[in-house]
Amino acid sequence: MDPRPIQAFRELTQCYGFTWDPALRALAEATFDAFSDSDTELLLTKMQYGSSTYKTSTDVRGLIEGWQLFGLPKYGETARRVSRFWWNDCLGTMPVTYNNPWGVAGAFLYEQTRDPAIPSALDFGLRRMATYEGGVGASYIAAFFEGAPYAMSVVARHGEDSLAPWVAYRDYGFPTSVVVFKGLEDALDLAVQTPGSESRRRVVHTPLKPEITLQVAGGWPAGMADWTGGDLHTIVQRSNGAASVRVPKDAPAGAYEIVPAEHGAHFVLAGKPTPMVLHAPKYWMLPDISPAARIYFSLPPVAADAQIFFEGKARLFDPEGQPFADPAGVNGWVNLPGDRPGLWRFEPIENRLVRGRNFPPFFAFGRPAFHFEPPMEWEKEPPARGAVQAVAQDSLFTDGAVAGKGNQALYLAGKKTLTFPAGAPHGAGDGGLFVPHREATIEFFFKPSWSTFDLGPGDVSRSLVQIMTDQRSHWSLVYRLDPKGVNINLSPQEPSHSLFGSMYLNDASRSWLRVWRTETLFERDEWAHIAWVWGMEDKAGPHKERLRL
Question: Are residues 463 and 366 in the same domain?
Fold first, then answer.
């Protein structure tokens, strides 16, 4: 028998579909019974090919075909469980990956359940797929010629107007949440993909850190406690990274807030059309999708000093649907009028960083009906800074990072540099006394006269630290935009703003260490604390390099 028994089942099923030979059907059914186990999570344990899930991203197609051809309930239940496993795994991600079953599993689950959230997630996947620019090998072809047609068929039949809302974004290390409204007679079902603990792919014997928390937005109203209905919701955290949230019908009506436990990329999908917004007081970034999403935000009747920032270009529209400022697109900080309250929208031309200032920081994706303003406080801020206060070019010092007597900082303007010797040879023969090669830290406060967004388009960078060892090894700490990621092994593959450190040991022929601190932003005239750390992880571990900000 084929070492992958599900693949053998698929081949026998297909042969039976062409020949109607009862002997082939009997072989197919016997093969299924040989690997099926009704006591397991996916009904697959016997005769594992690696594990219960290994290669099932490909073989799920055989399970679906077996159910469609033979119609036996146990085939249908197995196909549904394996499809749901991979649907959760692929949710909200780029579907162009190795043998990705996103379109096949989604279309099958929709036929079985008519779940209105599935067409929305398939629509999002099609938009993500449209931005794919990499090479396509044999294992990726199925995403285009199989997954995409299945997805398009479901989306076309379901209709755009009845799609459930989704929120997808990268938080860039800033606090965010997703807030959804529950009506008095409604139940809420939400699917969430968000970074979790490293226990996702392994078993540990310590309590797991929850990947998300659910709370009432703005806190419980006066006089209301958990026992009045706040003890009814459930969160199911899965080992493959997805989570399910259910707020039942008899839970209190109002706004519920999903708070990720860790920073990164997040995707939240509602189970049906309902108001749902991203709460993002600072910077955030949309994933690459095409066509671009329409993003809605509201200006209050009094909107003094309201601004919105676009790192890339975006088309901005007022509440009447008229283009604001340049119809071809705006970028940078845009001053919003204080006399045009209502629901504004923007449509990204480039999916880059966005930030709102001095208006409610709630953003709805897709349709204006999804926008609402939760009962959450937000802070007003001074307008975005322009040029920094001038300091004389010949000044040696300026105000420092820590307020107090004698506080000052070295002022390096123009081509000024600070150079210091490594010191006498290290007693252990490891570089210099002040800069050992194998283990050390360079730590400093840094206040640039520029911001991340002053650096301009393209692969621009700013050098912060340069070190030349006595063996002429070149070490550097650089800030770089990397607008399309870095095509180097073990490097960030998505657009990012990175502190990049590179170093050799004393012998330049030894391994080259590289480290990225991605999603790093510098604001003009604001202090940042940087620590460039390198050394052994532990006595038996590898030599590692770290960047902290």
Answer: no
Determine, yes or no, domain membership for 317.
yes
Burial 389-417 (b: 16+ CB within 10 A, else e): eeeeeeeeeeeeeeeeeeeebebeeeeee
Three-state SS sequence of 519-547: CCCCCCCCCEEEEEEEEECCCCCCEEEEE
Instruction: Report the predicted TM-score, pTM, of the whole model to 2 decimal places.
Output: 0.86
> Burial, 494: exposed, middle or buried (Cβ in 10 Å; 0-12, 13-18, 19+)?
middle
pLDDT in tens, 291-349: 999 999 999 998 889 999 999 999 999 999 999 999 999 999 999 998 999 999 999 99
Indicate whether 205 and 325 sit together in one domain: yes
- Tell me which residue range forms the domain holding 50: 5-162
DSSP 354-392: EEEESS--EEEES-GGG----S------PPPP-SPPP--
Phi, psi for residue 144 in degrees, rounded to 5: -90, -45
Determine, yes or no, domain membership for 413.
Answer: yes
Contact 87, 106 (CB under 8 A): yes
Q: In 3D, which of 72, 98, 97, 101 has the Cα closest to residue 85?
A: 101
d(CA 381, CA 215): 26
Q: Which is nearest to 479 in space by CA: 449, 447, 452?
A: 452
